[in-house]
Amino acid sequence: MATQAHLIWDDGFTRYNFGAGHPMSPVRLDLTARLCRDFGLFDGPQVEVLAPEVASDEALARVHDEAFIAAVRAASVDPGAADPAFGLGTDDDPAFAGMHEISARIAEGTRLVAQSVWTGAASHGVNFTGGLHHAMPDRASGFCIYNDAALAISWLLENGAERVTYVDVDAHHGDGVERMFWNDPRVLTISMHETGTVLFPGTGFPRDLGGPDAEGSAINLALPPGTGDGAWLRGFHAVVPALIRAFDPQVLITQHGADSHYTDPLAHLSISVDAQRIVAQTLHDLSHEVCGGRWVALGGGGYEVVGVVPRSWTHVVATAAHRDIDVEAAVPQRWLDDVSERIGVQAPEKMGDGTSERGRIWWRSWDSGFDPENAADRAIMATREASFSLHGLDHWFD
Question: How many Å apart are CA 232 and CA 89, to the nearest integer?
Fold first, then answer.
């Protein structure tokens, strides 16, 4: 019998550390793991916590150029020798000792849980240390060294998967994963993000649809700054479920960057933890509906590292473990005390932001009609008009 969920963690993952003052502080990983433990999510016969080894260079070369891997290795030994031509030693991706080993462990963790769900060893897999979606074949980008999601997808394709869907709800466009499978009709990438007209990496527009052999394999919903829970959920439900069902994947891989939150310092969306939880639960349900529950969930961005990321990703882990946590549930006092003592911050005392009622948020179904005066509706319509017909869907009604 399959284990309910395989989870990737050990304390060594906090070595993915770009240094003091960098937005991607490893404390967000530590606090997420501690919160999961305090809710008992790492325990029980239906959950297994895995600590992966370092991915081999041969494995990484499935998605990354050998010259880039060599450059990461060199910078890992001598950070002062990092080559900016490979995106290393920059403000976004400072080199640090051991960078290759920890980045390759993160990548191997996502590949490992993808293997677990594909072989039936586990129903679901979670690697909240992963979701490093900006890494390109030939360079680091946007706080991301190796592209763990792309490595997992590549492994699945090499081991018999014929259709894989990747859904990315990070505030930033999932450009690296999209790029790596741009012309591969076996992979559907869907990214719902803040428009690239105002936010890094400046890509991911509705007419970006994939390569000549895979038109419609890339889907982009680029939302305006300030989009709140109702419009975000409306956009998600108007685009993502219909396309997943039409593509009929055998495995669903999802990236849950928490930087869509209204307090995140690097983006301009206005989403609550409550809404992030709803999207995670909906994607989980779609995995059971469409692909036999074969679901891999990843972390990603998120720079409100105490008040948002740990709660958001603990909800993802709880969903994968089939042990949902109510948004009204109290955050364990032991975790709050630890945060206060070690970091000097008063963290939120509940697992939601108070924006939902019994875990539900009102959002207007696309069936209610298109409002051309609404910027979010215009963004949703642009995505549906560009892509739905390529999947046999009607952009007005499906």
Answer: 35
